[in-house]
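tool_log.txt
---
The assistant was asked to compare two proteins side by side. It first ran the structure predictor on the initial sequence, then on the second. Raw inputs and outputs are pasted verbatim so the downstream comparison step can read them without reformatting.
(1)
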Amino acid sequence: MEKTLKPIEYGEAVLLWDEEEKKTYLFILQKNASFCSHRGKISHDEIAGKLEGSLIFSSTKAPFRVFRPLVWDQMMKVERKTQIVYPKDAGWLALALDLKPGMKVIEIGTGSGAFTILLAQLVGKEGKVYTFDRRKDFLENALKNIKRAGLLDRVVASQLEAREDFPVKNVDAVFLDLPEPWIAVKPAWEALLPGRPLASILPTCQQLQQMVKSLKENKFGVIKVIELLERKILVREKEGVRPFERMVGFTGYLISARKLI
């Protein structure tokens, strides 16, 4: 069956790509509103009804392309009050957590909600993400970011201290993004179904050592620890192909484990 092409509508998130400067801009499409930058002005009404990939020109004749944002874009363009999980790490973590539609997932350390957005997309409409943070202002900001991504109906957010018992049980996965994630390992074990995974990200070796120790002491096994690096490649017709001068180096140690019984 051929899929019907759906034009972009008011109320949707829109990603504008500046073809010349290679920059992107994310916003919600609204009636009688305008996008403004140093490259000129574009009426939201001119974008409404366009198909993804359409070419549009600003008031200064600068060319832009119109898209719906990918989850990558939604994660990277959150309003930040904290550090976020970057896409290069998020992919490995999502696989380590074995995320599927319909699952129940706990996240401790909502932060700005970037990784929450990915979790919510992967568990699907039938799944649920229970995300907790100790700070009310972080949660309020994260919920705004999640709402802009159109995933708020899949997320339950509330305040919680990491040492406390998790209010949700029999979940399929737990993600910990905390300065001291080991204090949440025992509550995580109690909340997880047998054999299900836990994952975390840590910035220092000392934290990593403490986390592995806690996992072993609290009946977790199959422990894996990795570090990922990301380097862009320049592909040019005349100058040839070579790596970009700068790269996304260390962002954290990634760790996963599974509940033992």
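(2)
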Amino acid sequence: MSFQIPAFFHPEQLEFKPKYEWALGHRIKHPETTKRAESIYHALKKRPQDFELKEPKSVPLKAIRESHSYELITLYRTAATLKDGETFYPSVFPQRDKANASPTNLKHAGFYCFDAGTPLDNKTWTAASWSAACAWEAMKLIKANKSSLVYALSRPPGHHASSDSYGGYCYFNNSALVARELKKKGRVVVLDIDFHHGNGTQDLFYEDDEVTTISLHGDPRHYFPYFKGFPAETGKGKGKGYNLNLILPPKTTYKKYQKALKDIVFPMIESIDPTYLVIAAGFDTYKLDPIGDFSLETEDYFQLGEELGGLKLPTLVVQEGGYFTRDLGKNVASFLRGLKKSRLES
């Protein structure tokens, strides 16, 4: 018996259109374009036998407040007062313990931001809120046992955002929002398969023993976010032992990726015996991705989906990175179809 994977997306997520970013001293075209979401949306729309595209309802502000500070929310709302076409790029990043900041003053945005590539404009709040709403609506189906596999086409992405800071193209941490809600019914594993370490997700659950965070990523000494994502970061307090970082080498093939899963990740997940799996799904592990450096191919994502589906857990997939837009949609569809196949075979 076949089924459609519910997939959530709202058109207002396309209203936010950053034009460029500053990266290592260079001004470059911004990788987080609307073409990313459009590529995925069109790929899913072509396969109605596999995917049911749906629009989410708005996310409750209370849910955002449970993961993000009043100051961060206020900053985005301050940016909403900018004129059309006006964009603010943080350029001064003070040491937090030596500065006082007001989220009502955009000149202070660098106090809350940790890079020069995550701009603010009057569409940031709207797009980020609908991005979070996609994950929230998907979570509701999982929590109510109405589906065992749901996808959130969350754009902008979220895994670099923490409770009181943003960056890495991320404003609200969509995976964290849903994990925090799901843990009310049981243990949760957030598995981050983006090429870049999910520092925000790690920070949000670093002292939590009910949400386990696992990330496979490129070496932070050489790749964003640079300051987090090392093996020694295992959690703190009651969260000690509930955070795992696996650094994989450049040009990692799926064979090596698969070995890390089977030897380390799957045994850890099985030992935790979680109720839910949240996958922070980045596809910048693709061989042609401009800001990643792994060597996964489209067919590998199908196999990855099959193997993660073999965990037989209610699974919520939240979209993160992936910047080779020409192939992004087919890579996402391949991964989700692999997850679906594992459901049909179980």
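---
observation on (2): The first helix runs from residue 34 to 45. The chain has one domain: 5-59+127-345.
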